[in-house]
Design brief:
By secondary structure, the protein is mostly helical. It folds into 3 domains: 58 residues; 107 residues, no CATH class; 61 residues, no CATH class. Helices cover 73% and strands 0% of the residues. The chain is built from 10 helices and no strands. Helix 1 runs antiparallel to helix 2. The longest helix is centred in the C-terminal third of the chain and has 33 residues. The termini are far apart. Pfam families: Na_H_Exchanger. It is a multi-pass membrane protein. Belongs to the monovalent cation:proton antiporter 1 (CPA1) transporter (TC 2.A.36) family. Keywords: Antiport, Ion transport, Membrane, Sodium, Sodium transport, Transmembrane, Transmembrane helix, Transport.
Length: 273
Amino acid sequence: MEETAELLPIIGLNWDEVKIPLVISLWILFAGIAKIGFHYANRVAPRVPECCLLICLGLIVGGIIYAVRDDHLFTPHTFFLIILPPIVLEAGYFMPKDAFFNNIGTILTYAIIGTLINSFATGLSLYGVYKAGLMPGLDDSHDRPMGILECLLFGTIICAVDPVAVIAVFEEIHVNAVLYICVFGESLLNDGVAVVLYKVYESFLEMPDGSVNATNIFRAVLKFFVVAGGGTLMGIVFGFFGAFITKYTIHVRIIEPTFVFIVCYIAYLTAEC
């Protein structure tokens, strides 16, 4: 009996291999085209902030994806290593440096102490509501009761408010420079504080029960300052390295943008290690 020869496929799709970078690239392209279109909408652009239009666009696209697909997976790996780095780079690159460092004390107070208070208040309030029995259906959908660490983790996720619309309005009406830089600077740093808190609580959740004691709480506080200080040190070191490299690119200016992006991204990845 003769075996049937297998035919060589002429066209093939490797969707699983390129899915994540392709979807992100298409989304960035789509958002860029939408930003261009917003500025040509003469009736809408002067009345509605651009960031609000982008949020509405995201809700529409997200609703379409939710209606079309059954599985929805947005991993922390995708967020921290692909989506977040360009946001951090853009915010730091266009930061008004002089005004920022002149008001660094006020900004750090709002960003660190304010974010901590917001995180603890939200998490503890949620835990109090849960223990009061006002969330009865929550235990039915989980294998174990919700603990205080889960509530604090949730509080950390939503405590880093990014006042994009407020900053856009401030730029349009030209508010006091100190008020603007305090709000803008706090929005830059509170994300980092929230990320460090998130990783601390995540480490606690991965540890065995009974590991949350005075010693580990002290180590968590120490870890908070070590991670924050280490990230700052990494930024300073790679900043000097990037400045040193671009010092010798006077005859090849075309590669300077590449060095800026690569050095900043390597600094981010090194700090994440």
